[in-house]
Fold Palmitoyltransferase.
Amino acid sequence: MNICNKPPNKTAPENLGEAGPEVQRARRNGWSWPLHPFQIITWLLYLFFALVGFGILVPLLPIHWLPAGYICPGVCFIYHLVVHLTAVSIDPADAKVREKNYLGPLATFNRNQHAHVIENHHCHVCDVNVSAKSKHCGTCNKCVHGFDHHCKWLNNCVGKRNYWFFLNSVVSAILGLGLLLLVAFYVFVEFFLNPTMLRSDHHYEGLKNHTDVWFVFLPAVPVETRAPAILFSAGTFILLGLVTVGLLGHLLIFHIYLMWNKLTTYEYILQQRAQQEAKEADKQPDPCPSQVIPSQVPAVPPTLFFHHLFWALDCLFSFANAAVCYSRAVNRVGELIWVVFSRASSLPFSSPSSHITACVSMKEDD
Ligand SMILES: [Zn+2]
Ligand SMILES: [Zn+2]
């Protein structure tokens, strides 16, 4: 890896040292312009899960299960909405930055004049003294106290002021979605085994001989539909729900690991990068001086999304392997499937920690 061509510190403004016409401005929170596509996807997913879950799937539960079906995931969804909105809306900036009107044009950082964006606890861009735990986020263009990472799904920095809300939004999303997934599984299975169990609402009373007629958005605004629509809704919900819960679950485990080790995401990535560079230095001494200045630490990778995706695929292949081994013991068809899946599992997915290292390495190659 040629570290001589590394990009400059991406936690710093992008037009470093250039007297370009572009004026640097800071972002206040996740609602500040520009919005991020991931942020829009997040809200679309929330709408999809809420509409399909509470509008189509829960109303198909037997009547005695309806109160629990609405209340348990409903409380989680409402709580998630509150903490998610709070995490997006909070300004995580350093207290000194918030005290001044920092939304106007910012000073342009000149690398020829200063070696680092923050020197002796003074940020040359925010032009204030900041706390020792503050880092200057290049995306938000301001110093964030207790910087953990810049979250593209919130379109806001996660720092000390909103970390608790961020973590609660992850936990509540897993709980709420997990409960609705149970409902979706029930609907999907009963649809084939005993569909009458799903038709306990009074709208189905006169339709005993019309089993292809179904309703969505019961009981408030019943809309007549056909059987494939119910099946498609439940199937799509299960697929999207499993992927989302898998990724969020991995994110939660990762943050439990960080809390256990008293690290932030940012510190963890720096640690991993240092280890990676030490390994590479051992392998092949690099005569080129690194352009990365110690206190101008590299930015957090754009997102842990791909890292989480790789981990989910890793699990998928692990399950596939387990199923395949079982089939092999049963008959020769199982052996054939095992060969196919064993080849698939030779893809470079080994462990969550190795994915993070890979993610950091990929960032270096940007
Ligand atoms: Zn700053
Ligand atoms: Zn940020």
DSSP finds nine helices and nine strands in the chain. The chain has a mean pLDDT of 77.
